[in-house]
């Protein structure tokens, strides 16, 4: 670096650097820039600007030449991405191709990635349930992983903070195990979902069916209009990017908001190689970047660094940040970096039919579904496995067309829509237990196209997961049968870990620097000006879709970082 | 205010649609490079076949709506080589049957003759030909039902419903 002059270094120096522009990086950027910090946001992929870069957003179904199916050439070349439910003709351009960023699967793991500004926030399922105190207390009570250094009361105000800005639809259900938030008007449960809700509450006082809480604007407030976002139009083609900004993404919300402060520099095509550690100052001094287009390496400098590269890539960056002080990865005095990775168990689903309400149907479309908060082992241990599962639940009136024969009779059949029974369905979202044996590490020989070590992933299911699948199938099938649902069938899709896209951990929070990487404000214990606030920080996974918690942790960590900076503690 | 934001957003998005940038369309470029699976004559037979499966009545049939091209595109781009071979040989066999039975190509056969050939294939014992017919019929239904004409004029697809009502009478329409 000797040939860079001082001016050049100055031009590459910021108050803060955020690595990643997805759901958590967008929040870090928004909060940092609002607090007046000159912030560089590094994104490894291309830029995706709201509306302008949503090429398929207003295409009609018949304008997709393969009607959303992807050509065989593409699915053959991308078996991992192809296993994601959302990888289709209208959205494929928001997924990283398999060969763009290879990795080593010691066990089968579907690593689903979105390499562009906004990351996977363009593609997410938008479910935003808060954690409760029972979720944070899990590891301490059940003696796994390490104790969370924070509880519900620490994060509750930050949940409120991010919910108000993002726009969350939901119903105030008053359930102890799934705290209410700052909700915009709820979506409807339909008649069969309401019926099931009543049926379940008659049988079980601690089991609830509610409408999902989701990041959709149902009732725009001034703060949403100020972002240029409007009411959700129920198109339910969110994965193409929404021209209304009806759902929350970094692209529609936090990134343009941060840009408007004048304090953000966004640098796409910037693959982060490592975080630079300054031995003399005993803190991180910047970030080393490989320009994705030129392959040139360059350094950027800042007082604080937020790592929001998405869970496993944040692990990769820290593991690759080697110095004489940290020979095993930045902040890794404990040796736990990369270990205790966990995910959500989405393997099982249940389907059935209901023969009631045949004179009723639904009208319009709903970008949301019903939700069953965790009821297993919440207040006390009651089964032969640890923790539990939440579940999705939804009902739809079946419609069909006669497809018999050929000619005019077939044509007439196709154009006459007939109503069948209601179909009902549920899928599990199980907590998995973080274990040392579920880990990621740098592969010793394999390199990616940028010359970075490939990430070796060794994450699998265990006996606890198998027991939980069995229990979910038993319990929810029974709830279906008690409601009079017919033709109840369960299915174990045996999907690979990672396909849930809820991989978490490896850089976990904890009270003790000997057994954890991050403190209660997401600072590396051993390198206090580096913060990790994406899925990598998660001590345990509980059952809720995790993005809302990452948003809240990011905003909370920025608040702390800026206070510490002002107190000259960083 | 809210409506104005929405309209402005829509206008911008419409602008974005006009030309797909390379990184968006790159995913389906393979289509253009592979050439056509069927000859012009075979394509004509396929069009006759989809029109027989879903014929013109007081509304257009599948042939007129370009569903033959859709079937060919899907098999070419999304199906495996076995399915592609089945499409080609199935069409040849169908044409041979037509020449044997009626002394003319399927493309020149009358409406009733075409239907008879397809129905015989459907009831026949040749598993390969039945599979061919089943594949073409399914794709014909998909292409027809998802055509602009049908979705716009007959099944009234709503791009922007802007609502969800959880319980309405079936008769509402």
Describe this structure in words.
The complex is a heterodimer of chains A (570) and B (173). Chain A is α/β, with parallel strands linked by helices and 570 residues long. Chain A contains 14 helices and 23 strands. The model of chain A has no long low-confidence stretch (mean pLDDT 97). Chain B is mainly alpha-helical and 173 residues long. Chain B has helices at residues 2-17, 22-25, 30-34, 40-53, 67-78, 81-102, 111-123, 127-145, 148-154, and one strand at residues 164-169. In chain B, α4 packs across α5 (67-78) and α6 (81-102) crosses α8. The two termini of chain B are 32 Å apart. Mean pLDDT of chain B is 86; it is low at 1-21 and 25-33. The chains are: A alpha/beta (570), B mainly alpha (173). The interface between A and B is large, with 65 and 67 residues. β14 of chain A pairs antiparallel with β1 of chain B. Chain B: Residues 1-24 form the signal peptide. Chain B: This is Gluconate 2-dehydrogenase subunit 3 family protein.
Overview in brief:
Chain A has about 575 residues and is an alpha/beta fold. Helices cover about 25% and strands about 25% of the residues of chain A.
Topology:
The complex is a heterodimer of chains A (570) and B (173).
Chain A (H helix, E strand, L loop, with lengths): L5 H6 L1 E7 L3 H12 L4 E4 L29 H6 L1 H4 L21 E2 L27 H4 L1 H5 L9 H15 L1 E2 L13 E2 L6 H13 L6 E2 L10 H5 L23 H11 L3 E4 L2 E9 L4 E9 L5 E11 L3 H9 L19 E4 L1 E2 L2 E7 L5 E5 L5 E3 L16 E12 L7 H8 L2 E14 L7 E9 L5 E6 L4 H20 L3 E7 L11 E3 L16 E2 L2 E6 L14 H20 L4
Parallel strand pairs in A: 1-2, 1-10, 2-7, 3-19, 4-5, 10-23
Antiparallel strand pairs in A: 6-15, 8-9, 9-10, 11-21, 12-17, 13-17, 13-20, 15-16, 16-17, 18-19, 22-23
Helix pairs in contact in A: 2-10, 2-14, 7-14
Chain B lengths: L1 H16 L4 H4 L4 H5 L5 H14 L13 H12 L2 H22 L8 H13 L3 H19 L2 H7 L9 E6 L4
Helix pairs in contact in B: 4-5, 4-7, 5-8, 6-7, 6-8, 7-8
């Amino acid at each position: 670096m000797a040939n860079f002059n001082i001016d050049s270094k100055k031009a590459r120096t910021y108050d803060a650097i955020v690595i990643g522009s997805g759901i958590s990086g967008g929040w870090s950027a928004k909060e940092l820039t609002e607090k007046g910090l000159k912030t560089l946001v590094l994104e490894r992929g291309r830029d995706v600007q709201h509306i302008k870069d949503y090429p398929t957003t207003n295409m009609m179904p018949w304008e997709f030449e393969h009607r959303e199916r992807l050509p065989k050439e593409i699915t053959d070349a991308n078996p991992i991405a192809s296993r994601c439910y959302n990888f289709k003709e209208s959205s494929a351009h928001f997924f990283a191709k398999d060969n763009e960023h290879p990795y080593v699967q010691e066990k089968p793991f579907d690593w689903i990635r979105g390499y562009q500004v906004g990351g996977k926030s363009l593609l997410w399922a938008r479910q935003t349930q808060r954690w409760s105190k029972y979720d944070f207390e899990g590891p301490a009570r059940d003696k796994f992983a390490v104790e969370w250094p924070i509880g519900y009361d620490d994060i509750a105000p930050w949940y409120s903070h991010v919910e108000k800005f993002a726009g969350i639809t939901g119903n105030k259900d008053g359930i102890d195990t799934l705290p209410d938030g700052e909700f915009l008007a709820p979506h409807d449960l339909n008649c069969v979902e309401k019926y099931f809700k009543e049926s379940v509450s008659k049988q079980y006082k601690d089991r609830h069916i509610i409408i999902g809480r989701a990041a959709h604007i149902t009732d725009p407030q001034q703060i949403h209009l100020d972002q240029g976002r409007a009411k959700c139009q129920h198109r339910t083609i969110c994965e193409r990017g929404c021209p209304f900004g009806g759902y929350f993404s970094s692209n529609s919300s936090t990134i343009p908001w941060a840009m408007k402060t004048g304090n953000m520099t966004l640098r796409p095509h910037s693959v982060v190689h490592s975080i630079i550690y300054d031995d003399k100052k005993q803190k991180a001094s910047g970030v080393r970047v490989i320009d994705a287009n030129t392959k040139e390496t360059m350094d950027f400098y800042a007082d604080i660094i937020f790592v929001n590269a998405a869970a496993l890539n944040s692990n990769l960056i820290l593991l690759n940040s080697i110095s004489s002080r940290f020979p095993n990865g930045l902040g890794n005095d404990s040796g736990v970096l990369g270990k205790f990775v966990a995910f959500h168990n989405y393997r099982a689903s249940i389907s059935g039919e209901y023969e009631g309400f045949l004179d009723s149907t639904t009208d319009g479309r709903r970008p949301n579904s019903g939700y069953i908060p965790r009821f297993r082992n919440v207040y006390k241990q009651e089964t032969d496995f640890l923790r539990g599962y939440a579940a999705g639940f939804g009902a739809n009136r079946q419609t069909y067309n006669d497809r018999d024969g050929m000619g005019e009779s077939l044509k007439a059949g196709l154009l006459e829509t007939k109503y069948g029974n209601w179909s009902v369905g549920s899928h599990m979202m199980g907590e998995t237990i973080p274990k040392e044996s579920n880990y990621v590490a740098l592969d010793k020989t394999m390199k990616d196209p940028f010359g970075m070590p490939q990430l070796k992933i060794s994450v699998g299911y265990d006996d606890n997961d198998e027991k939980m699948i069995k229990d979910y199938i038993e319990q929810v099938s029974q709830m279906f049968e008690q409601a009079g649902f017919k033709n109840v069938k369960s299915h174990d899709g045996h999907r690979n870990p990672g396909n849930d896209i809820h991989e978490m951990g490896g850089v976990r929070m904890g009270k003790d620097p000997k057994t954890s990487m991050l403190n209660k404000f997401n600072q590396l214990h051993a390198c206090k000006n580096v913060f990790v606030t994406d899925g990598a920080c998660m001590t345990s996974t509980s059952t809720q879709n995790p993005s809302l918690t990452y948003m809240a942790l990011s905003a909370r960590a920025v608040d702390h970082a800026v206070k510490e900076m002002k107190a000259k503690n960083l | 205010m809210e409506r104005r934001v929405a309209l402005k957003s829509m206008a911008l998005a419409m602008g974005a649609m006009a030309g797909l940038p390379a990184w968006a369309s790159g995913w389906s470029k393979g289509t253009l490079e592979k050439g056509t699976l069927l000859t012009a004559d075979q394509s004509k037979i396929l069009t006759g076949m989809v029109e027989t499966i879903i014929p013109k009545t007081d509304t257009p049939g599948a042939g007129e709506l370009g569903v033959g091209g859709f079937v060919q595109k899907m098999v070419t781009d999304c199906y495996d080589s076995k399915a592609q071979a089945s499409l080609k040989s199935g069409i040849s066999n169908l044409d041979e049957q037509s020449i044997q039975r009626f002394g003319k190509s399927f493309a020149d056969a009358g409406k009733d003759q075409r239907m008879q050939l397809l129905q015989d294939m459907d009831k026949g014992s040749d598993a390969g030909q039945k599979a061919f017919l089943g594949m073409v019929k399914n794709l014909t239904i998909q292409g027809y039902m998802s055509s602009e004409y049908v979705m716009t004029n007959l099944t009234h697809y709503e791009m922007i419903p802007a609502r969800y009502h959880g319980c309405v009478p079936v008769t509402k329409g």
